[in-house]
Amino acid sequence: MIKSSSRTSIIIATMMIVVIMLSMFSSFWLFRQISSMQVGPTRSELVFFMRQYEYELMRTAAHYAEAYPTPRFADSQERFDTWFNILWSRLDSIESGRLGGEAVADGFDFERLQTAIIYIDSVLYGSEAPDADTVDNVRMLFKQLIEESHQYQQDRDFLNREVALERQMKSYESYRNSLVFSVIALILGLIVAVYLYRNNKRLLDMQAGLEDRVEQRTHELMLSNISLKSEIQERYKVEEQLRNSQMIAEEAKERVEYQANFDSLTKLANRNLFEDRFSQAIARARRDGSQVALLFLDLDRFKHINDTLGHSVGDELLREASGRILNVLRESDTASRFGGDEFAVVLPDVRDPLVIEHIVGRILDELSMPYRLDGNDAFVSASIGVTIFPDDGDSTGTLLRKADSAMYKAKERGRNNFQFFTPQMDIEAHDRRKLEAALYDALEHNEFMLNYQPVFNPHTGRLVGAEALIRWYDHENGFVAPDVFIPLAEEIGLIVPIGEWVLREACRQAVRWKQTSGLPLHLAVNMSYRQFQKQDVAAMVAGVLKDTGLEPERLVLEITEGLMMADDQGIHDQLDNIRQQGVSLAIDDFGTGYSSLSYLKKFPINILKIDRSFVKDLTVDPDDDELVKGILSMAQSLKLQVVAEGVENREQEAFLVSNQCLFTQGYYYSRPLSQPDFERYLMQSAEAYRSA
User: Fold this and answer.
1) What CATH number was assigned to the domain covering residues 452-469+478-691?
2) Angstrom distance (rounded) from CA 392 to CA 389
3) How far is CA 672 from CA 419, 468, 471, 517, 675, in A?
4) Distances in Å between the alpha carbon of 29 and those of 26, 33, 185, 186, 365?
5) What HEC string does 581-643 produce?
6) CA-to-CA distance for 581 and 672, rounded, in angstroms?
7) Rama region for 82: left / alpha / beta (φ>0; ψ in -120 to 50; rest)
8) What residues contact 428, with CB distance under 8 A and at least 6 apart?
9) Which of 65, 257, 464, 472, CA to CA, is 20 to 30 A from 554?
10) Spans of all domains in the chain
11) How many other C-beta atoms are found inside a 10 Å radius of the C-beta of residue 525?
12) Stronger pLDDT, 492 or 161, i.e. the higher one
């Protein structure tokens, strides 16, 4: 049972604690009152926000006066449009922003502003030009909006002063009350201090007894602790093992989840995570009525970098390109790698198509900047296709397919650009898939054929060779131009078997022609850059020559200038091997690419073919005359033979003969001929030579 003196002590102590707490609460409340006398940061933000709005109104009205009814300056209309768009943005921020909501709650007439802006937009940007009355009405509207904004801010400032005075009076009253509570707390504290001092002896005796009992209990606990220590240590070991096992399991789970959702090379989202986030973005867009943009991106010339500089450099380029893409995107956007050099980007919550164009433009700019890779400067660009939900589709598969079609259209239009999807692209993509399938069927069912264009020695007038040109007649599409199906064959990898078929068939025909006509014609066959990348062309040529029995010195392989630009040691070795076999190497369309004398000396080239674009304007354009003369003179200095393509008249032939061009071909002599027609042409030429 508690003694009366102890009970009294408890009561006094409790009262003192209550009084002190009340005093502390009063002081805290007083502090809050004094602090609130100043305009808070939120209020300052609102004042600044509304003054910005009034400033934008005044600037827009001033530029309107310069632009209507007659523009005062050349760019008056443009400046007014800019400030009017800013006013539209301010309208959106008042409607959806935090400060705008506070302003409306504080009495700002948002509907009045919205109605006025919509009316001004409709009369100034409608189908009919505004008349004089409309111009005056708009000017009055701007004036009224400025006056209403100014009146609103005056009202708010007056209200703030009234509230501040009222709070100041309350703060003074609170200060008096806090002072009284503090004095009472001080008096009671002195009383309790005297009381506790008088009872100090009793408390010390009680403390000594408690310390004895605590010491005894501590000794008992120490004895029991010795027996439990070993058990605790064993338990710690078991718990540590369990924690380690759990950490290993969690790390393994995180690795599995990461591998399932992220690309290991670029750290971007993979296709699984991309489709999940894309589906979520579409679901949100359905709810709030917004749009979602899908960007499908492919790096231009990445395969060239990968093949010439190596896969490790290609991986480094992909990582840097991924970082550049992420630097452009917003936090809510998602970038993913689909594999190879293909990327996809999701832009959720799109309400203005200009946002898409801005982001895509920045991506193109970033990716086209030079890459410093393993001591080499590399240059790539990107082609981007864009689709929009719900305009272009409502499913991930549909939008991806259409974005892919738009991306291919961007590549067709010169690369390093972007294209929004259009229904026509679906038709073109369908046609491309049909053409691709037909190309596979054509290779399987041997639907290709060869035409041959004669090559002449203009000094003797004799037929000396022919160039083999592939042709394809599709039963559904008719004749398909080589510049249509050859790039497609290179892209899907069919150029290797097609190129080998062309070489084998042309060599077989050349052997037959010699047997029937007795003329040992030279045969020129075009080789694709992809063939040198995908196979050992030198070994393939050796095998074809062995199988067909064609003499190596009668075969000419035509390559492009781009093949030499690759600067690949493997390709260089293949070309050396081909020349060692006795086969000639010619640069096709010389002068249209990037060849230089250093490449002509470095690679084992022995024939140049002047492009038809230079021959066409001979005797008409003095610049082309001098250019062709320069090529012929350079070839003579380097001991290279020259074939001029595209000769169409006698004047061109005479110019080339006078400048020591050894070989010519073109419509002046003959168009490309089918195999039977060329054989008849060949037999006629042989008869003419024998009769001569």
Assistant:
1) 3.20.20.450
2) 6
3) 38, 9, 10, 19, 10
4) 5, 6, 17, 20, 58
5) CCCEEEEEEECCCCCCHHHHHHCCCCEEEECHHHHHCCCCCHHHHHHHHHHHHHHHHCCCEEE
6) 29
7) alpha
8) 405, 408, 409
9) 472
10) 1-198, 213-261, 271-421, 452-469+478-691
11) 25
12) 492
SS (H, E, C) 483-525: HHHHHHHHHHCCHHHHHHHHHHHHHHHHHHHHHHHCCCCEEEE
User: HSE (CB half, 13 Å, CA atoms) of 196?
Assistant: 9
In the block, tokens 């919550």 appear at 349
**What whole-number distance in Å separates Cα of residue 123 and Cα of residue 310?**
62
Please compute the mean of the pLDDT values over residues 226-251 and round it to a whole number: 75
pTM score, two decimals? 0.51
β-strands 641-644, 555-559 pairing: unpaired
What Rg value do the Cα atoms of the chain yield, rounded?
44
Tokens of 248: 């290993």
Separation of alpha carbons 406 and 385, rounded Å: 4
**What pLDDT score does 223 carry?**
82
How far apart are alpha carbons 418 and 384 in whole angstroms?
4
pLDDT at 595 over 60: no
Q: What is the 3-state secondary structure (H, E, C) of 48-79?
A: HHHHHHHHHHHHHHHHHHHHCCCCCCCCHHHH
pLDDT at residue 38 is higher than 60: no
Count CB atoms within 10 A of the CB of residue 612: 17
Structure-token match 């004398």, residue found: 597
What tokens does 183 get?
């004095």
Give the CATH architecture of domain 271-421: 2-Layer Sandwich (3.30)
